[in-house]
């Protein structure tokens, strides 16, 4: 089997709910990063064997295979196929998994993976009545985030909200409100510094007519002292707040994967190992722990080999719980340039963002080993090992 490499990665700035990207359709967001990838690498789009994009909601304008429509809107020839995958928050990282496997098995030479989410434009939906012309009232569901139309056969304990799950993790792993607020403030501070210092410069493409100076959810004023004034969001006596939870966001990401020598340019990083893991849905946030352990084992690496980690920050409590369980990991090498608490978490795009961040950082350093990991609602985790 051949190896798979990341040749380029790009993303839009992430917009806040109802703000800078609110009037941009998901398929148009996808098309922006797809077209940018082709332009940046100067490849003929007809060379792309498949477009694999993640999308968590798929209930609105993204409902009919957004990968295919994004490619068409990006001007790719109709011979370039597209498929959309859904592993909730891990959708775009899952797309990278699928793409790298296709490369390694010899089924493809170039795959454009990534993901997109417009949580702002996710629609309200109404279930159909079980019988025609029913006079019964129907429930209106908000498809932006969270459980909806839950199967009553599932245990009630499993279908608590993600925020309630974060509260449960905080209790299980003795994570204080102060720790969560400090972690969230760190994310904002590091993200702000990264934008100021041009760290993300090679990773960002602007959406036409929607220029964002930086990711819209970054707040320079988010100190631990300021965050401490916020009320608990999921439990009256809890510790999880809007300030130490990731925001609802809009955005897209893309990762160009290929075999060795597929492009004339040097790749950013090699994909060395993948890992998946599942656990109970009510503690979904710690599933990345074992996923990363498995990815490292498959890469022939140990935590002592790892130079830095990109962990998607769904909640401060969830991230800190993972750090508790990765006992041999130095917390200071995690999200050195901020994470989703500050940058935003457009569900289908976040996995592509952290893969791109890790790949560009490895290229900047010239060498190293990176772990990319993400938690997924309903109790799953994904992790990827990149090397250079």
Identify the overall geometry.
globular
- Report the average pLDDT across residues: 97
Proportion of residues in extended strands: 15-25%
**How do the SSEs run, as a string of H and E?**
EEHEHEHEEEHHHEEHEHHHEE
CATH overall fold name of the domain at 4-122 and 246-387: Peroxisomal Thiolase, Chain A, domain 1
Helix content: 25-40%
Biggest β-sheet strands, sense, barrel:
10 strands, mixed
CATH architecture of the domain at 4-122 and 246-387: 3-Layer(aba) Sandwich
Radius of gyration: 20 Å
CATH class of the domain at 4-122 and 246-387: Alpha Beta
Total strands: the figure is 12
- Given as residue ranges, the uncertain stretches (5+ residues, pLDDT < 50) are none
Structural class: alpha+beta
Straight-line N-to-C gap: 19 Å
Query: Count of helices?
Result: 10
- CATH homologous superfamily of the domain at 4-122 and 246-387, by name? Thiolase/Chalcone synthase
């Amino acid at each position: 089997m051949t190896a798979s490499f990341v040749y380029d990665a790009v993303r839009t700035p992430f917009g806040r709910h109802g703000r800078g990207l609110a009037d941009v359709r998901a398929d148009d967001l996808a098309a922006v990063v797809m077209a940018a990838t082709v332009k940046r690498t100067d490849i003929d789009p007809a060379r792309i064997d498949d477009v694999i994009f993640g999308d968590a909601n798929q209930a609105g304008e993204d409902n009919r295979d957004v990968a295919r429509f994004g490619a068409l809107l990006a001007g790719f020839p109709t011979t370039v196929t597209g498929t959309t995958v859904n592993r909730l928050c891990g959708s775009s990282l899952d797309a990278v998994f699928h793409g790298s496997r296709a490369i390694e098995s010899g089924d493809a030479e170039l795959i454009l993976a990534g993901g997109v989410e417009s949580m702002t434009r996710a629609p309200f939906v109404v279930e159909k009545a079980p019988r025609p012309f029913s006079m019964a009232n129907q429930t209106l569901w908000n498809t932006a985030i969270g459980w909806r139309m839950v199967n009553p056969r599932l245990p009630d304990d499993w279908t608590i909200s993600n925020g309630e799950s974060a509260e449960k993790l905080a209790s299980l792993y003795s994570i204080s409100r102060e720790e969560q607020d400090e972690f969230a403030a760190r994310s904002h501070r590091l993200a702000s510094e990264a934008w100021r210092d041009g760290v993300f410069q090679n990773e960002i493409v602007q959406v036409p007519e929607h220029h964002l100076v930086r990711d819209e959810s970054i707040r320079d004023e988010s100190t631990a002292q300021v965050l401490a004034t916020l009320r608990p969001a999921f439990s009256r006596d809890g510790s999880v707040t809007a300030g130490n939870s990731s925001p609802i966001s809009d955005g897209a990401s893309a990762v160009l994967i290929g075999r060795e020598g597929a492009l004339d340019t040097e790749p950013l990083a090699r994909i060395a190992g993948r890992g998946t893991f599942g656990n109970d849905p009510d503690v979904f946030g710690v599933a990345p722990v074992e996923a990363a352990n498995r990815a490292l084992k498959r890469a022939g690496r140990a935590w002592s080999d790892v130079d830095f980690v990109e962990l998607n920050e769904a909640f401060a409590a969830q991230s800190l719980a993972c750090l508790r369980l990765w006992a041999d990991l130095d917390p200071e090498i995690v999200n050195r340039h901020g994470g989703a608490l500050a940058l935003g978490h457009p569900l289908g795009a976040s996995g592509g963002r952290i893969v791109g961040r890790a790949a560009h950082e490895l290229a900047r350093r010239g060498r190293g080993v990176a772990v990319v990991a993400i938690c997924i609602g309903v109790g799953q985790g994904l992790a990827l090992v990149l090397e250079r």
